[in-house]
Every structure is written in C-alpha cells, then in structure tokens.
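Risk register update: the risk that structure generation would not scale has been downgraded. Supporting records follow, first protein first.
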Amino acid sequence: MTAIDRIEEGPGSARIVARSDVVVVGGGPAGQSAAIAARREGASVTLVERYPYLGGLASGGMVLVLDDMHNGDEVTVQGVCMEMIERMARVGAAVYPPPEDRRQGWDVYRKWARWGAFDFRAQSKPQPIVMAAAFDPDGWKRISNEMIAEVGVNLRLHSWFSKAIVRDGRIRGVVCETKAGREAIMGDVVIDTTGDLDVAAAAGAAFNEGKYIVTTVFRLGGVDTEAAERFREEDPETYAKVDRAAKRVMGGSWDFWWLKTPLPGIVWCNCPHMTGFDALTVEDLTRADFEGRKRIYALVDYVREHMPGFEKAVVVDVAPQVGVRTTRLLEGEYVVSKDDVMDRVWFADTVARGRDYYTPYRSMLPKEVDGLIVAGRHYSATEGAQKMSREIPPCMSMGQSAGVAAALAVSGGLSPKRVDPAAICARVRAQGGDPGDRPSANAKIMENAA
C-alpha cells in the first residue's frame, strides 16, 4: 500500500469489563473445553466469543461429526469431548455406534457409514466402524450453554477480539470490539483458541501461514435417506454415475457428500470444497460465501431430478461460518512435523492426543510471548502435520489441557512455560480426560523429548 491508502489512528482506550485468572479467547470446541477445565480447577475464567453461540466450527461451521478419536483399540479422546457427546445423546442430539459395533464388517459398515462413524484413513474395505458421533448443531449450542453455566464461567458473547494487551513481553489481557464500544478483559493467563491464531499473532508471536480448501457447509431437509440408500444398494452402477455427476456440479467433496443426522429426513453436506481462498481476507471470505451458495443450489437442482430419495430435498440452512481448515499456524517452542504424526511419536511433555498421535506441551507455547497458551487447529505444527491433526476431538483435548495448565500457572504463581506437563496430565486425568501421557503400544518414543 502507498501512504495514501492508510490512516493513522490515535491510541484510544477501552473500558475494563472483566478481570479473571484466565481469559479464553474463542468459544469453539477448544475454547469451551479450556474454559470448563480451568474453572473446574478453581480458576476464575472469562470466555469471549464473537458469535452469539458457542461451538465455533462444530456448531456455527456445522462440522457435524466428531471423529479422529479412536485408534481401533480404544477411545483416545475423553474428558470434555466425551461429556459433550454423552450429554447431547441423552437429549437426542447425538448418535454414535455402541462398542460392539466398533469393528470391521459389511453389516456394521452398512449400518453406520452414513453416520460418518468409520475410519476414514483406513485403506481396507469395508473401512472399520469406530467411535465417532454425529450431532445436531443446536444440540451442541444447548449443551455448551448448560456446561458453561454449570461451572460458572463468565461468558461474553458478541465480543470480537481486536487487540492483545502486552507489557514487558507478557500478555495481560485483550481488547474486544462490541456494540458497547471497545472493552478490555484482563487476566493472568490468556488462552488463544481463535482457530486463526488471532491473539498470539497480535501479541507478536511467530507464525506461518497455510491454505487448504474451504467449505460452505449446509443441510438438506425432506430427504428419504432409506430410498437413497436403497438406490445405492440395488443399482450401484447407476448410483455411482449420479454420485459422480453430483460431485462435479458442486465442484468437489469427500466420498460421502451427504451423511445422516440425528434429525429425521435432514442430511449433512460437508461440501462444496473450494480452493483458492485466503480465509484471512474479507474479500475471499465474502467470495466463498457467494460461491458456496451458488454451488449448493446447483446441486439441489440436480439431485432433485436424478437422485432417488432427494426428490423433495430443500435447503434447511447454510452454516453461518465458512468452513476454514488452515490459516495461521503458531511457530512455537516445538513444531510438530508430519512425520511426528504419521510415526505416532510420543513426547515426554505430551499433554493431549488424537486418534494415534500426541501433542507436546511445547507446541502450545509461543516462544516470544509469556502468559499465553495456544490450543486448537492453529497450534505449532507444519502444514502437513496440521492437516492430519486438526479434527475437533483432538482440539478439545488440547483445550482441556490448556485450561488445566493455565489454572496451575495461576495457582502456583508460575509462567505457563514453567508448569510441569506431568502435573497437567494428572489433573486432566482427574477430570476424566486422557492427555496421552501413557503411550500406546505402537507409539514411537522420542529421545530427549522434552
């Protein structure tokens, strides 16, 4: 930009509206897990979120399957994530396969594949059924509100992060833009769970940028899922042709472009896949919204005419948040590599886990800024590693450990960087989580891991 393209702003001021031991910025899955975990450890917690609901890409982005949490032998992500699933299931807002169905076989595959409860990384056919949960987005919002209220988190929705308050190399709080003007929330420890590393980047932490597909997720109602499945079973050749054509119309999707949801007749469509968009720019996010809707309605026109079971399909809703997978990635005290994920490397400072990979505490800590912890898809990892480890359950595992770490830092009068990872793991286990401190038999132990 030239000088004429910019204006100078005054220093300004912000009204302090809250002071807490821990401030969590971003109310998505990782953020709400962090806030709940920190509060359960006795810390006072303020959680700020820009949207009028909790859940981030789980609810607002309508990523309606929780997966990458089962390694074929055990459920590897527990704690707040499993509590959410079980509580949603009790009110009819989540569905998942029972333990006896978590195996390989065409009988269970036909029963559960359309719920998204299969090992999507497996090469064998049929892909094994594993622990994964299909859920309703408003069910997520409902249970999130209940859990946040039960533990006593100070929740501030409609608050858009705009500035990190940093003094002498330590973050002291954040400023948010609101309808009431600029508001400051002060805290001893800040947790960045924005998904885009907004807080850490603003505070001066090093980061890299990555790009991947974006998606305008949507749901269709009026679908006869039994008729659609019958078409696939009875006439697989014709079904395959129609399915391929549908994917061409929308410009790309996963193998199963529609999945069942807990609501009868309503299916989830995690598509269309769109490339060439930078999710850190207003222009590209706007284009993605427009382009996505255009492709969605082209798809609906096509399947109404050609796909049995979809003759009366209607668009129920389009996710209010664009499905963003990768933007900024922290360059922290340790950068997790693709080999670390693929080789199941276990670290001495492991504090969280996904399906069969582990997250070291150092990858949640910025090098340049004290008092700050990062949890979620923007943790310190290479782009290749992040693509394999950014699903919602492992992000919730990271969030729970970040919340515990923040509370331990406050109670011990420590910098988060001085908190003992073993102490974090002990408290996460006490909360019912699995922080990955006990490596599985196929893990690769890293020498001098911490």
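Supporting record for the second protein:
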Amino acid sequence: MTRTNRPATSLTRQLGLPGAVGLGLGSILGTGVFVSLALVAEISGALVLPAILLAALLALFNALASAELAAAHPVSGGAYEYGHVWLTPSLGFVAGWVFLLAKSASAATAALGVSAYVRHLTEGEADGLAVPLAVLTSVGVTALVISGLRRSSAVNMAIVSVTGLALIALIAASMVRTDPPVIGITGAGLDPDWSLLASATALMFVAYTGYGRIATLAEEVRDPVRVIPLAILLTLVISAALYLGVGWAVVRAAGAGVVLDAAGGAPLEAVARALQRPGLATLVAMGAVTAMLGVLLNLVLGLSRIVLAMGRRGDLPPRFAHVDARGVPTAAVLLVGAGITGLVLIGDIRLAWSFSAFTVLIYYAINNLAALRLSRAQRLYPRLVPALGLAGCVLLAFQVPWPVWTTGLALIVGALVLRAALSRPRSGRLP
C-alpha cells in the first residue's frame, strides 16, 4: 500500500531490532538512573541493590507478558488494546487512562530533570529559569516527534550513546578508586530498614518500564513476533546491568559527607564530583541531560500512540486517530505535549515519581491479567509468568504513600464515571 492511499489511521512498520532496543534503552536510561536511584537509596539505604534486583525480576515477568501480548496483537496501544481484546472495554479504558497519567508524570519528571542538570552545568546561572527550561524542553521534544519516527529514532540512538558512555565512565571511576568517597544519603542510616524494601522496589520498578515502549510501538516494528520479545529482553538485560553498576557506585560511596539529594534533581552529579576525576561530573551531567531527553522523547512517542488507540475506539475524539501522510499522529502528539507541559508547571520531582509508580503498577497489573487470557497457541511463556507479574504489581502498587494511591484511585473512578456518562454506542472488540 502506498503512502498516498494508506488508511488515515495506519502506521508504517519501519523499526528493526537495533531501533527497537534503542528506543527501549532511551525510555529506561533517564530519570530511573539519574533521579530514582537516589530516591530509592533515601528509602532503603544499603538495600538499594536488592531493590534494583527485585524490580528487575518483576519487570522481567511484565516484559515477557508484554512480549507475548504484542506478538499476538501487534498494534499500537499496549495494555489499552490488550484490555479491550482479552478483558473488557472498561478495563482497557482504565489501562489507557492510568498509562496517560503515569507516563505524563514520568515525562514531566524527565523535563524537570533536564532543567536541573542544565542548571548544574551552568553552575547555577540558570537557577531562576527552572520551570521555563523544563517547558522549553517539553515543547522542543514534542516538535521533534511531530517531525517523524525515523528522525526521532536517529536522535534517540545518539542520545543513548552519550548516556551509556557517561554511566560506564561513572561506574569505571568508582571501581578503580581504592578509597571510596563519602556521600550522605538523606534519610538512610547505616542500618537499613528491611520493611521499606517493598516501597523502594515499587519506586525502582518505574525505572524499568521503558521496555513497554517497544510493545506500545508494536504497529511500527518490522517482524514483530520475532523482534519485540528479543528487543524487550535485550533492553532489560542491558539496563539492569547499568543500574546495578551505578547502584553499586552509590552504595560504595555511602556515608556521612556530601548530601545526595534526590529532590534536587541532580544526585549522580554529587557522586561524580566526590570521585574527583577531571571532567567526570560534567560528563555525568551531560549524560543525564541526554538520558532524560531520551526518556521524554520516548514517552511522547508512546503516549501519543495510546491517544491514537483511544481515538480509534472512541474513548477520545476521532481527530486523535488521524495519521498524516508521513505516518505521524500529529493531533495525538500535540495533545500529549500540551499535557506534559502543563504537569511541568507543578515542579515537584518526588511527587511526580511516586504518582507514576502507583499508576504504572496498575497499568501492568491489567497487562498481566490480559496475558493470562491468551490461548495456548498464543502463549509464548508459562502462565506462571503473568501470574507472578500480576501479584507483584498489585502488592507493590499500595506501597507508595497513601495520599498518592488514594488520589490515583479517585482519578480512575472519576474517569470511569465520566466515560459512562458520556458513553455512546461503540464497536465490538477487535478480532
């Protein structure tokens, strides 16, 4: 089918394995490693490494469930589509709604993180421009996504390269130093509280969920049955290795000295400065900027595809289902960009990340529930995999502060009530 006569709601399959892995890493290696590791360390102290491993295990269960769902139904929309196809339209709607909430909050965190590290790179000269810089970042990334997936993917690969170099340099500098520097982890003593491990794991889990971007973009992946599962697994293995390396560097530096302040938005730069290697702090700050730009870029891509899917099914106005001649859902991208820019104005990294943790865990709970409904022929992995993923997501979702999860539940109920009030005849499930 040619570009000129392609249906107005179809997307083009143009991503191979390297591009899919690059988009997955670009989604993961950002706020997760440059911001959330410090949040997790503040909560769990020396248990940050077990939290990283437990979160990686839960992410693996969810990733395998996402892979088999995407292979069985390779269209854009992720758990929103899977909920409609294998569960009920209402659960599909909830999945789409919480994904928009979760990832918009994560995207706002990324934009604020870019602003924080840029201010550190300018040695505080841009301190008065924190929110304007974040807004400008959000607008710029939205414009890039509108320019097309091919260009966005190329920029993303460059971003991931710089980010990976910065993280490897930080890990290497920590490994070769025989006298570990002293870094204070606010709120974490020398004797960690094991009861807080679940909360730390919940926050850390969000840092891995960028692999879902591969499934969300399934309609644009070539040979999805082969490429999607392999790309998701490679993305998780690479990101977990880097998280463990950076987490080890943070723990090795733990003590009483320079304060590692996650809320300040640039905690890993404190670790880099304490290592006293020429240019390392600057390289880490640059890697953080590119990393969070990559996260923001991939979130705008993923969120816009959820909006596209919701427009197709009538949960959003039909104009958001339109795809232009270049294969870009422009209206959906603009809506997502506007929503993220609005959330940036709140300016609270810690609150945004905690809210994202709750809503994304609910999203993946629905994702795993849908995977349990796959037929034997569609299933790639044992049913135990999505069952464990579902149990882990439900357990950890309510480990965040209660005002966060009660607000999240209220927003879900409110959205369902509004949907029921505005409902109109809808088409049946997709085959």
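Residues 108 and 343 are 6 Å apart (CA to CA). On this basis the risk owner (M.S.) recommends closing the item.
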